[in-house]
Every structure is written in C-alpha cells, then in structure tokens.
Amino acid sequence: MSQESTYFTYQPSTQKKADDKLLIKSVFSTEDSRGRKRYFLITELGSNRFEIQEINRKNLPAGQRQMIDRRSLTANYTLEMDFWEKKVRPAMKKLNSSLRRGEAHRSHGELYSAEMEYQDALKLDEENVRATFGLGQIYLDQNNSEKARDVFKKILNLDSAYSVEHKHMFNDFGIAMRKNGLYPEALEYYNRAVELDSEDENLYFNMARTYFESGDWENCIKYLTTCLKKNKGVEEAKKFCRFIMEKSETDEEMLEEFGSTELGAKLRSDILSLYRDMQLAAGMEIGEAIERTQKIRDRLMDIEERKRKEKQISENLYKLDSHK
C-alpha cells in the first residue's frame, strides 16, 4: 500500500480558532529565596488569566508556560518596563526576524539559507519550537533522515512544544515524515497532535493515510472511521472509504492481508466490525453495509479454506518425499 492515490488531494484545514484578545504583554520580576531577581514575560489573556514564561540569559522567554490570576500577579510580581523595552523586546524582534527569514527561504526552496537562519534562531533560544520544527523540515526536504530523527527526538523532549498553538507543527512534520517513509515517527507526531486537540478530524485522516501507506489496513480503517465520526462532511475521507470498499471487493491480495495473521478469526472479526463501522460513517445505509460486510467475510473464509488446503497438500507432499 505504498503507492500514492488520486484520492489523496485533501489538505488539512489551516484555519485557526480565534484566540482571546491580547491585552497586555510585558516583563515582570520576582525575587527567589536568595534575593535574586527572576524575570518573566507576562501576557494577559483576559478573564483574569495571565500566562507567564521565564526570561532566559539571552533575554528571551523560554521554557514552560504557566497560568496565574490577577491576584497572584499583583502580590508577587513587579513591572519592569525598562527591561521589556531595552532588553526583551529587541531580543524577541531579532529572534522573530530570523524565524520569518528561515520560513521565507524554505518556502522558496532555499534550504541552505533557511537552515542558517534557523541555526541563528537556536543560538538565541536553543529550545525554540518554531526553529526546531523548521530545522527538522529542512532535513526532511533534504532527505536527511538521520538528522531529521535527531530533531524528532529533541522535539519530543521539549516541554514547551506541547501547547495547542503548536498542533499544526506536529501535523505538518508528521506529513513530511510520512512522505519520507518515516511512518512510526509520523504516527507518533500525529498522536502528540491528537493529545493537544482530539477533536481535529484532519489528524485522524492523516493517520489513516499513514497506516494505508505503511500497509496496516486495520488501523487505516479504524482512523478513517474516527475521522468521519468527528466530521461527516470530509468528502475526501468518504472517497477514501469508497476506494477501500471497492478495492476490498476486487483485490484478493488486500483480503489476504485482512486475515493473514496468526490471530485468525479474531482479527477477521475485528476488522470486519471496523469495516462495517467505516461504511456507516461514510453514510451507507445499515442494510447495505451489513450485506457488503458479509460478502467480504465470505471471501475471507474462502481464502482461508483455500490456504488451509494448500498447506495440507504441501504437508502431504513433504511426508511422501521424506519416505522415499
């Protein structure tokens, strides 16, 4: 199942949900137990919600973000307007400029220049999520799987990567990994994205496609069904379902894969149940879904019986040869 299909023109939606209106962003300080100042970028999100992120030695916000309320802010933190204007704001501007240039270079296929910009960004903030993802994309574009895997491991260890705003990065990197045949890594990225947003049907569609290309029919059907249960309006997912149904009725090799494990009848029962659910999710009437599923079951049983007879004949021939 490694071939490309004409049914895969679907691209996940890039539309973002509206964020809370940004009210305040500045630097505040607090003192630790030794009387040393620690600086934080604090962003007001509204509804008595403030996000804080510590400032690193390069004057950039880095690491995990936390939420506090107004009472905690006024009781424990002091506004540092000069530090924000003279140190943090210029550093953030420089970092964002490198990131934008890197993304522009990559979009134009200028991979070396893009890599240099991402590397410059990482010199300022070694755990910057956008730069790390961008660098991983560069290595995948260059078909450098070894370096891409190194970036893959780094991202999985970045606590700051696990926020909803980075969901699309996990999805995009998963797509790039799939295109490079890195199926287990792609699936792990999709799973991380699902942890951030379990209601995004696009992620399940991409997972189904990855399982399709890696040769796992059972999980392909499972996640395609989940996609349609999340959103019955994904037309490309419906086309994908029809493609699988038509293929399963004509392609004996596919049917052999359905029931080709030592689990035997259990796997056959499980995948037939998934197969029926997929058809229902795609909008098929229950009577037709049951009828088509029964036809597949009968064909699977015929194949299993034929395989059994072939095995018995082979064993009998072996016994004859051994007595000669």
Structure notes:
With 324 residues, the protein is of the alpha+beta class. The chain has a domain at 201-324. 63% of the residues lie in helices and 9% in strands. It has 13 helices and five strands. It has helices spanning 70-76, 81-107, 111-124, 129-141, 145-156, 167-179, 183-196, 201-214, 217-230, 235-250, 252-258, 265-281, 286-322; strands spanning 24-31, 37-46, 49-54, 66-68, 78-79. It has a five-stranded antiparallel sheet. The chain starts with 23 loop residues before the first strand and ends with a helix.
Mean pLDDT: 82
Order of helices and strands: EEEEHEHHHHHHHHHHHH
Low-confidence stretches: 2-22
- Could you give the order of strands across the largest sheet? 4-3-2-1-5
Tell me the total number of β-strands. Answer: 5
How much of the residues is beta strand, in percent? 5-15%
N-C termini distance: 44 Å
Radius of gyration: 27 Å
Globally, the shape reads elongated
* Discrete helix count: 13
Helix-strand blueprint:
Elements: E1 24-31, E2 37-46, E3 49-54, E4 66-68, H1 70-76, E5 78-79, H2 81-107, H3 111-124, H4 129-141, H5 145-156, H6 167-179, H7 183-196, H8 201-214, H9 217-230, H10 235-250, H11 252-258, H12 265-281, H13 286-322
Antiparallel strand pairs: 1-2, 1-5, 2-3, 3-4
Helix pairs in contact: 2-3, 2-4, 3-4, 4-5, 4-6, 6-7, 6-8, 7-8, 8-9, 9-10, 9-12, 10-12, 11-13, 12-13
Fill in the keyword field for this structure.
single chain; 324 residues; alpha+beta; 5-stranded antiparallel sheet; 13 helices; 5 strands; 9% strand
